[in-house]
Write a structure and sequence with these properties.
- With 239 residues, the chain is α/β, with parallel strands linked by helices.
- Helix content is 26%, strand content 29%.
- The protein has one domain (3-235): Carbon-nitrogen hydrolase (Nitrilase/N-carbamoyl-D-aminoacid amidohydrolase, 4-Layer Sandwich).
- The chain is globular and about 50 Å long.
Length: 239
């Protein structure tokens, strides 16, 4: 396969966890032809610190609800999850009705008090993973700012960024994600929330830096040409 259809979601988190899950399921069903679907960070619950245990307990129900829907495509999202070490913000990749990869957010956003509620994952657990001859990586929101994490994902064909990035720093997420695509000569797919205080800026970014983005949409889709990765790396050999 030389191309993939990608859909990045961009919708707001409502107070009702079930309503958020229902909306996510609607959007997945509406984009069944997509090979990759990515949702914003903690889209199902938000950072609901007042009801943090309830948010964490929603994890199993959400995964059980989503599992039957995800067959040929990949679904990427993050959820709040209770572990023996504490509550984490876990990024998961679902494919063929299973979780094929998971990664806990290692760089917590202290400005948003994440460090007071979450246990940080380990940076050394951030790694590349492979599926059907392609190499993927995940950075969760704030992790996009750390150059040492960019280095861990060198060689990826596609980097996925589920985010809940604030409106005051809108230019930052757009600049950093585009720079990551250019420096790594890969596709970068950003999914950010559209809450009133969020930046939106969900995007599908090509290895040459071209951007598909539309802040007015709840779902942004594009066909990506995988040959562009090889072409760009041959054209500008920086390795």
């Amino acid at each position: 396969m030389t191309s993939k259809k990608v859909t990045t979601l961009q919708f707001a988190t409502l107070p009702s966890y079930q309503a958020n899950l229902d909306r996510l399921i609607e959007l997945i069903k509406a984009h069944q032809s997509s090979d990759i679907i990515i949702a914003p960070e903690v889209i199902l619950t938000g950072f609901d610190y007042d009801y943090f245990d309830e948010a964490a307990s929603f994890y199993d129900y959400a995964i059980t609800s989503l599992r039957p829907l995800i067959d040929h495509q990949m679904l990427i999202l993050t959820l709040i999850k209770a572990t023996p070490q504490g509550i984490v913000n876990r990024g998961v990749v679902m494919h063929k009705h299973q979780i094929i990869y998971s990664q806990d957010k290692a760089k917590l956003f202290r400005l948003g008090d994440e460090h007071r509620f979450f246990v940080a994952g380990k940076s050394e657990h951030i790694s590349k993973f492979e599926l059907n001859t392609l190499t993927y990586g995940i950075l969760i929101c704030f992790e996009l700012r750390f150059k040492e994490l960019w280095q861990k994902l060198e060689g990826c064909d596609i980097i996925l960024i589920p985010a809940k990035w604030g409106k005051p720093r809108k230019s930052h997420v757009e600049t950093l994600s585009r720079a990551l695509a250019i420096i790594n000569q890969c596709y970068v797919i950003v999914s950010n929330a559209s809450d009133e205080d969020m930046a939106k800026s969900s995007a599908i970014i090509a290895p040459n830096g071209d951007v598909v983005m539309n802040d007015r949409l709840e779902a942004i889709s594009a066909d990506i040409d995988l040959q562009e990765i090889k072409k760009m790396r041959r054209y500008l050999d920086i390795r």
